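B., you asked whether I could sanity-check this one before it goes into the benchmark set. Here's the sequence:
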Amino acid sequence: MSIYFRLFVLLSLLPFWLGHAVAADSLLFKLPYSPNSENPKELVLIALKYEHAEGVRRNHAKAATLYCKAAKMGDADAQFFLGWMYANGRGVLKNDSIAAHLFTIAAKQGHTHAQKMGLYTKASASVSFPPCLLETPLQQTANGKKVTYPNNYISKLVTKLSPLYAVDPQLVMAIISVESGFNVRAVSPKNAQGLMQLIPATAKRFHVKNSFDAEDNIKGGLAYLQWLLTFFKGNVTLVAAAYNAGEGTVKRYNGIPPYPETKNYVKKIRKLYKKRIHPYRPHVSGS
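And here's what the prediction gave me:
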């Protein structure tokens, strides 16, 4: 990007930056946010402080790390801000292709500024991801023991796709592990199919054309998880129960249904995924 274009973009976005800076400053002094927070909005506010030296010493590298953590959770603001960091080489090595990709995934979530920036940046032929987003979710801890997931194209797909649906890749890996044991061709006695064991009705509901195609199956499972997280307001236990028994059944029993299979399923997911509350988008279509 030319120096004149950079200046134009900076000036055009100045009101936006200042608005976020004021909001971040006022909120951060009132709330005990932590860099270890699991709330992406809180992480973005902390990152803004480090990026713009608001009450703390400026630290672009730390800001980029926090933005990336929130971006991995699917936060569009974080994806946009991280893209800006890569476009300008702040705290990370300048990379217009990575910036363009981040602007694209934020734009798909309706982020207005990312949509504008997408007009001025272009990704390379091969999709570029920030290294921090490519860290594969390979390990979980269950009963004090590490559970190692396969480091292959499935984990890479999960890492790539999860941020688009604002779903923690660790939760997805746990569900795939319990559902299919990473068998792309898995079929259950109830005709649930593929990695995330989508029954035909669920596959149709979330526009999955081929349940035995790994990427198509994961997209369908992610779309369903995203919807369940919104429906149950981020309650991971109820989401797991609904993934096994259906949201209608969980709603009817007002909790985990008294089915041994569902109880055992929830128990397995909770061993692999320790978080009980997951961020969720307030408005998500069910189809």
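One thing to flag: The mean pLDDT is 83. Otherwise nothing jumped out at me.
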